[in-house]
Amino acid sequence: MISTKGRYALRVMLDLAEQNSEKFIPLEEIANRQDISKKYLEAVLKILVKNNLLEILRGRKGGYKLTRKPAEYFVGEILKLTDAENLLAVNCLKKDCEPCERKNLCKTLPMWKKFDEITNEFFFGITLEDLLNQTETLK
C-alpha cells in the first residue's frame, strides 16, 4: 500500500507541474492548494529536493520548482524515493532483509517477484505529463 508520504509527494509534483512555471512556488501556496500541513509538506519536499526532483530557493521570494519537464518524471521514481518498501509485495524482497530460510522451498516467491516486476513496470510507465493529460496510458 502506498503511504501518505508517497501520495503527497505525487500530489506536490503534480501541483508544481500544473503551475507550469519557471518561477519558484512558495511552500504555503502548495500547502493551501493541496490541503497538506506545511510541516508535513516540508518533510516531503526535503526528500524531493535532496534527490534533485525539485529545486529550492530560500528567502522571501523563495519556493520550489521542478528541475525537469513533467514528461521526464516517472511516477515510479517519485514513489520509490518516498515509499520504496511499500511498493514491495512481501518483506522478503527487501534488499536488506535477511534471507528467508524457506527461500528455496517457497512456491510463492516467483509470483511475488513477478507481481513486483509488474508494479514497477506500471509505475515507471506513467509520467507526470500522463497524469496531467489523462492519456491513454491510464485507461
Explain this structure.
This protein is mainly alpha-helical and 139 residues long. The chain has one domain (1-139): Winged helix-like DNA-binding domain superfamily/Winged helix DNA-binding domain (Arc Repressor Mutant, subunit A). It contains 6 helices and 2 strands. The protein has helices spanning 4-19, 27-34, 38-50, 75-83, 109-123, 128-133; strands at residues 54-57, 63-66. A two-stranded antiparallel sheet has the order 1-2. The longest helix is centred in the first third of the chain and has 16 residues, at 4-19. It is elongated, with a radius of gyration of 17 Å. The chain starts with a helix and ends in a 6-residue tail after the last helix. The mean pLDDT is 88.
Q: What is the average per-residue confidence, as pLDDT, rounded to a whole number?
A: 88
CATH class: Mainly Alpha
Please state how the strands of the largest beta sheet are arranged side by side: 1-2
Tally of structural domains: 1
* First-to-last CA distance: 21 Å
Number of strands: 2
Strand and helix order: HHHEEHHH
What structural class do you assign from the helix and strand content? mainly alpha
Our count of helices gives: 6
Percent of residues in β-strands: 5-15%
**Unreliable parts:** none
Largest sheet: 2 strands, antiparallel
Shape: elongated
CATH superfamily label: Winged helix-like DNA-binding domain superfamily/Winged helix DNA-binding domain
Summarize this, please?
The protein is mainly alpha-helical and 139 residues long.
Supply the key terms.
mainly alpha, 139 residues, Arc Repressor Mutant, subunit A, two-stranded antiparallel sheet
